[in-house]
Amino acid sequence: MLYDKGIDVVIVVFRGTSPFDASDWNTDFDLSWYELPSINCKVHGGFMKALGLQKKRRWPKNIQHNNHSDNNKPSRLVAYYTIREKLKTILGTSSSTKYILTGHSLGGALAILFPMVLLLHEETLLMERLEGVYTFGQPRVGDEKLCEFMEEKLSLYGVKYFRFVYGYDIVTRLPYDDKAYLFKHFGTCVYHNSFYQGQIVKEEPDKNYSWLTWQIPKIINAVWELIRSFIIRFWKGSDYAEGWLLMFCRLFGLMIPGMADHALQDYVNAIRLSSSSLLQFSQPLPNTSRLKSKARFDCKENVL
């Protein structure tokens, strides 16, 4: 959590999947449904557990914060509750303070599900102060009923929700949107191609990552991205130089196009290099340079 008192905005960042954390991978591949009878919808069970779903699969409005590890850091079992209370404390000191939710990959899924639980708990104040949700490389989180519920409520509270997708990022196309899995995306999709040119689209190209129909364009794109790894420092400047690990991922992407597109660096590049007019559909995001210089950093790794 970062709080910039200069612009009076709190930014809550949810961390994505840690490459060497088995519990994170278990979360991603847990495709069980968690049903919410109150709004007649289904949500990705793994993401619900990562956010703080309690035992016996329920969301009580309040819990005893006694699920702490030996080092006194809150565990992921109380993530939602801990973040909610911290936000209440900060927002309670000022009537004008707003907050933003964001995250990459798994973190993006948690960022959009956080306000869903706030709505279940009728946390009106927190919903009124929520400025927007910005996710990057986010997978699908629920069925069509959840999409309808969230779009209605976010619109009611005037909350902006933008889902950034880069290239053929495979994660943004999972779990599948078909008759078997029933997962759907919602919100405004901001799509960037491999030249970091952005546009607002209804749905990202090849929404279900078809191996046959889109195979040739994906391979051609993966070849270009590998070449781009070597020339981007000369093309866009030394700030955009890529390391050998990312170049190796680009090489691996020739075999499974779309895997390397999930890299966080491509999303950072897309935001930095895309046309400034693209973001005029929304109110300007906080000045990141000011955030770097003025923000107070308060991160609980096991929670976020």
TrEMBL record:
Positions of the Fungal lipase-type domain: 11-177
GO annotation, biological process: lipid metabolic process
Coiled-coil annotated residue ranges, if any: none
InterPro entries xref list: AB_hydrolase_fold, Fungal_lipase-type, OBL-like
Single GO MF annotation: triacylglycerol lipase activity
Domain of life: Eukaryota
Cross-referenced Gene3D superfamilies: alpha/beta hydrolase (3.40.50.1820)
Pfam annotation, one family: Lipase_3
Ranges annotated as spanning the membrane: none
The protein, known as: Fungal lipase-type domain-containing protein
Organism name: Stephania yunnanensis
